[in-house]
């Protein structure tokens, strides 16, 4: 019926790594089945052609399963390594020096015996490798108030101040704005026009109050 046509069924499958043992077996069988299909089509054996096509479909599914399984193994290994790395990072323990108290991700130094003005307290915290405490949330504030009440000092300096711009309170540790506050009712008031530093005051259940920075107070240092 015309010129002889090349046997397209005998063309090998390409694009897969046939050196991989898991791939090479089904691919070799695939090529053999293609050859059988070609021979059957020449002899017009319809039943054999049908059976061969079914076998090819099954082989296709088998190859797809192997590829997916292999990819899942790779992803799984990387995912497992990532999870192990996260667990190692989470497992790193915070070690606080002697006289420091650990809570969550910070160490705290409570100085209730040697009162200082705010600037001197800040310098002492820096000398200890930390900063005047920065209170980020209600949980941390609760912890500090609870600990303070075990000794009940008159008042305690924290790291907030508005010495750079009136009513614009920031933390001395990183100059960031306050995102959590626990002001006593009516505070901050700048009552004496020089209340630029913040302390926790006993008479108001250790809620926050602005106060002159020159006053000598107890204080809390923090380091992370």
TrEMBL record:
Q: Per the record's keyword annotation, is NAD included, yes or no? A: no
Keywords linked to the UniProt accession: Disulfide bond, Membrane, Transmembrane, Transmembrane helix
List, alphabetically, the Pfam families matched.
Lectin_C (PF00059)
Asked if the record carries the keyword Transmembrane helix, the reply is yes
SMART domains named in the record: CLECT
Residues forming the C-type lectin domain are 103-222
Stored InterPro entries: C-type_lectin-like, C-type_lectin-like/link_sf, C-type_lectin/snaclec_domain, C-type_lectin_CS, CTDL_fold
- List the signal peptide residues: none
In Swiss-Prot or TrEMBL terms, this protein is called C-type lectin domain-containing protein
